[in-house]
Amino acid sequence: MSKELVEALNALEKEKGVKKEVVIEALEAALVSAYKRNYGQSHNVEVQFDKVAGDIHVFAVKEVVEEVFDSQLEISLEDAVKINRAYEIGDQIKFEVTPQNFGRIAAQTAKQVIMQRVREAERSIIYDEYIQYEKEIVTGEVERIDHRYVYVNLGKVEAVLSHQDQIPGEEYHPHDRIKVYIYQVENSAKGPQVFVSRSHPDLLKRLFEQEIPEVFDGTVEIVSIAREAGDRAKVAVRSTKDGVDPVGTCVGPRGERVQAIVNELKGENMDIVEWQSDPAEFIGNALKPADVVEVIFDQQNERICTVVVPDDQLSLAIGKRGQNARLAAKLTGYKIDIKSESEYHELVDQATDSTVPSSKNN
């Protein structure tokens, strides 16, 4: 058993990268517990493992004291100096107490410790590999589905796709190959846990980087994204180089570039708008396809504004179930109140009338 254990430790270090010293330290601690559990002892004990021969020795450790109160933990100075005249009060003396049949227990314990360390090493390797892909897109295969998750096989690990991370209305079947965004990797007690999404806004960003070289190399920058997965998204872009049309670059010839992204997201509508440093212009762009007549900012809170649109475009600006206005607000970071021209002028007239002093008859 001794030589086999040493060989196992050497192989573990070579193949799994687990240092022998780390395993030996864990093994010695486990053997202390095993000794106390199997022999009903409460001694202060140590276990020493011979790294060369593989022999295991158990020692009871006793402190040298003037007067002994617990013989399992203490030894009198008088008895200590009989062993070695150099001993003094406070010294620790080790007495070997290795049981004759301790080898069998040691072998079982060593097997358990080594198996545990192998599992931990494998988990660590997988975690180290997938943490590199956090915040990135990967392609996986749908493995199985239950009431909580869609389980996606990424190769060495099974990722989970929760309901809130799925695109509403999208169906998943075993063996489907899908692109997912890894938004979190955890090194839990059960092993690496990889959480993926199809609805995350950054999935859209990574798809733009994959399909549009100018986005990937930074010529066109994605400033912000507002997304209601499976239905509609707005993407604000700007050019970092003169002469480059950011919106046209993303749309591509005959809309081919953006269509590839729409197809990947099962028909999700895509509005690509140009970011502007002028907030009024940016808000106007964000509300497209509606035209904007004027943007008036609240004097008390600069993040709140009223947007005036032509009467015949009010419903277009607000959008179905308020979606266009809601996405524009998310995209720009402004709270937007949309008014038609006639409604806005009526409010202005009412405010003007209320401030004009009434005339009195003499």
From TrEMBL:
| The keyword DNA damage is annotated on this UniProt entry | no
List the subcellular locations: Cytoplasm
Ranges of residues in domain K Homology:
229-301, 302-357
Cite the InterPro entries for this sequence: KH_dom, KH_dom-like_a/b, KH_NusA_2nd, KH_sf_prok-type, NA-bd_OB-fold, NusA_N_sf, S1_domain, TF_NusA
| Keyword set, alphabetical order | Cytoplasm, Elongation factor, Protein biosynthesis, RNA-binding, Transcription, Transcription antitermination, Transcription regulation, Transcription termination
Q: Which GO terms describe its biological process?
A: DNA-templated transcription termination; transcription antitermination
Q: Name one GO cellular component term.
A: cytosol
Please state which protein family the record places this protein in: Belongs to the NusA family.
* Functional description taken from the UniProt entry: Participates in both transcription termination and antitermination.
Q: Which HAMAP family does the record associate with it?
A: NusA_B
> Which PANTHER family does the record match to this protein?
TRANSCRIPTION TERMINATION FACTOR NUSA, TRANSCRIPTION TERMINATION_ANTITERMINATION PROTEIN NUSA
Q: What is this protein called?
A: Transcription termination/antitermination protein NusA
- The gene that this protein is the product of is nusA
